[in-house]
Amino acid sequence: MRAVKLWAAFVLLAAANLEGETGQRAWLRYSRLDDAEVRTYRKDLPAVVVPLGQGLLIHSAQGELLRGVRGMLGQTLRVESKVPPEGAIVLGTLDELRRAAPQFHVAVRLAPDGYVLKTIYAGKLRYTVVAAANERGVLCGVFALLRKIALGQSIHGLDEKESPYAPIRWVNQWDNLDGSIERGYGGRSIFWDDGHVRSDLSRVGDFGRLLASLGVNGCSINNVNADSRMLASDFIPEVARIAEAFRPWGVQVVLAVDLGSPKILGGLETFDPVDPQVAAWWKTKADELYRAVPDLGGFVMKADSEGRAGPSAYGRTHADAANAAARALAPHGGLLFYRAFVYDHHLDWRNLKNDRALAAYDNFHPLDGQFDSNVVIQIKNGPIDFQVREPASPLFGGLRKTNQAVELQITQEYTGQSRHLVYLVPMWKATLDFDMREPRAGTPVKALVAGKAFDRPEGGFVGVANVGLDDDWMGSQLSQANLYGFGRLAWNPDLSARQIAEEWTRLGFGNDPKVVATVVRMLLGSWRTYENYTGPLGLQTLTDVTGNHYGPAVEASERNGWGQWHRADERGVGMDRTVATGTGFVGQYPAPVAAIYESLANCPDDLVLFFHHLPYTARLHSGKTVIQTIYDLHYDGERAASEYVNDWESLRGRVDSQRYDQVLAQLNYQAGAAEVWRDAVTNWFLRASGIADGEGRVGRYPGRFEAEKMRLEGYMVTPVTPWEDASGGQAVECLEKRCSASLTWDGAAGWYALRVQYFDQNKGVSRFLVWVGNQLVGKWLADDHLPAAKLDGSSSTRHTIAAVALRPGDEIRIEGVPDGGELAAIDYIEIQPRGREATGTAILRHSRAVRLRSVFTPSD
Ligand code: GCW
Asked: Could you tell me which residues come within 8 angstroms of residue 333 by beta carbon, excluding any fewer than 6 positions away?
């Protein structure tokens, strides 16, 4: 009965809430709960709030509580300064609480930022106590209390104690001072514009609040490819303004610094880290900074990496470099994060023993014990660089006497750049839960990075967030799940990926069970889906590693110094990293782990080509050959991506219209992009191996007509590079004012979907028109902002025209009108009987609703 009533309430509520939402409120929407829930919570929540003490964060906690309760329960709490003789919510540090309400006897041991939520009875009066070791903990506790309410959990008899798993829970932003963000997909910087701090920092405060709600306590505010100006004296007031915007949320500002600063900025003749003058410069600079920003978290440093200045210039070690800056920070309690992302990007690819994966361990393991106690080595989750799947970096097991933190990438650089749905929490969990068996079995990576395994004073989690000014922060609504997921894992890495997905979905989209079930299912499958169509079996992301890191480019990672090779040729594929015959990388792992990866018998299929070079005909644990698995997984991935469109369409009317439309457009795009990926990679491996797909799919595309084989007027045939990114390796492009490509339909009469695969370069907005005989059946603009100037898999996209009645003898004509440097290029048209259109009605309906906007003048 209750279920039925709840259900009815959800539907009503959904109907009431369908106006657009921008996503800016993220998971802190505090939408009004349904009446039944409001009644329960109003009963359980006292009417008064008592903030103890005058602290800034206590003030924020009080404000947040009022805001949340007002939003969800529609009532305004009374604020009192003393514990009243009626029930109340009491917020304060344990010290304040002992002073103000000794009768509560709250005595617990909590780590910094940890909190208790406790219902306490005093006679007939009931108090809800949010208490913590420090003020930030009180704020964390208030967010936790509000989260419980939003999730529909009981707050009647609270007795909870939470402490964060690790002291460091930071995000990094790779923002440049000109306002751009390296590998950012959510718009321009919230901090910087045109070389200066932005005048309006309201989004910084909003971001601080989002971070605080997760317990994230630090944020670096500039690119690790650091501009030395960051430390200039006249720039420090700009940094101070950002610190001020974050301060009410307990988020400490962190700066990315350039090791070369003493020379570039300080005018010294050297930046040699052991030179006393250089050490003095760092010290003076740190003192100056802390005068302006007393709560500065510290520095993050990228040195000797990808062209950055480093200690190697003077024959010094990374420890010398790190300690020089760390000693300047130490008196102020600051931390120095030194990135382990150090490798030689001029490796000789001809030498089969060379391997970039070796670099982090080779560089840092020998220095274990030489770093000061306020240095933290920041280690990417895998040994290469944020690929779609990598094993855990062996360096996590290679530092016993040095603090470490894991660096996870929230921004989806190699994982679809916010255009592909990829929920990264399962990927991060795979690393964090991986048993490194060092010093003994049962030592997951999370325990190592948190400093638990070797009893280190510092340690934890760093996430590269790269949020921007876009309303949705990340460039896509669903990508917010990754920011949320990072924060939750950093607080408690024992949470499951499903639990986090469910929390996020409920907070972001409400408690409608169908929405929750559908979105959670999509999220949980999405990493595997993306991996399947981009680079399964440990191949890493088969993309352009020296370019945009986005579309398919199978050979791009070969024959260059960057070392992300997969060694595919006509006989086989995979990097041999074994000790016996390969690069020896496997030997960097503790012996019991090495035993897993070294032997084909033990190595999991998911990583087999990361560790072994295999003939295409080798059989995997699954019993299938390598080549057939590559084919099958790419088809599986593409199919799964196309199903997301249908899944999402089933939520029409249950999600507000603005976010519904945005996500649908994204998923439609992804479904098309997944097909581009599938075709590119499978055709590349078909050509390389010469072994046909056992299912007969690769190279055979019924209903597909290549543009280069159509009747062309004005259009010129052009090769596409890399060839696998276009069907048949070619496209047509228009160098005139208007061009056309046509064919005569000689199939059966009936209803057909017309799918035009075209190229949307970022150099203009070309137009397309599709005619059947004299009738215009479709028109659209190529106005997406894909990361590609040329014709390739990054610019390839599609437009579907719902259902067109064709008769034998009809002429189908595609007209292209170029704009700027964009040449209205076409790859092919696919004509599918309507009922057989793989993705069902979803794409068809969407194409009418979303793509056919009235963008043409009547003369068209
Ligand atoms: O993955 C690579 C990125 C670079 C980045 C670098 C790093 C900030 O492509 O854009 O530079 O990693 O982590 O330092």
From this structure: none
